[in-house]
Design brief:
two-stranded antiparallel sheet; seven-stranded mixed β-sheet; globular; Rossmann fold
Length: about 250
Amino acid sequence: MEATDKGRVEERVAMVRVVAADAVETSAWLGKAALAPEVVAAMKMVPRHRFVPEECQVLAYANRPQRIGYGQTISQPFIVALMSDMAAVRKGDRVLEIGTGCGYQSAMLAELGAEVYSVERIPQLAASARDRLDGLGYGEAIHILAGDGAKGWPEHAPYDSIVVTATTNPAVVAELLKQLAPGGRMVVPEIQEAGTGDNKGAGILGLARWLAVEPETDLCLITKDEKGVCTHMRLLPVAFVPLVEGDPAD
């Protein structure tokens, strides 16, 4: 798939260089020093400036989150790239996304060849993302539901990958894992359960200080084997808006 907006290509290339440097900086925790070539190519294609409010477009390609209204944000490019990479999307995969937001992560997943089923609790964001993605040529590959993301989208399960773009508790994670296919992967910012700590010791605490966030929420990769057994790996501390459960907001 190819986005129709060709503007600001040089800024996208510069953004990818910064993202690549972040991948090197975090390689000790992620176990790899480079993103998949397909993810890099997608980052260069998707016009990030089309996903932020007009007044923020001058900073659209800075490696930082941006506000998109309704108390929500578009994640920094490195985090979007990392989550896309960890999802290991293959062409034709069915991917569940929890938290459509402005639609940028959805576009990245579609650019990687996925059929995306994305759930957004805020109807206004769901509608604007739908219009934006249609205008960029992603409409046929991305389906958007205004609903409770904590419930997923069971009608289209099982999914090859699940990407959650809001801080989530273990109970929600367990519910969403029911919709993950055997052999699938979930990438999710998950709150640490009390008393569990992290599995990377002092190193990850140092990284938390470098990221200027408290190590209470970790970006996690969960894999499900062919027998349905899940393996949970905490990658690095992150800061996301919380997932709000319940019926869509008015």
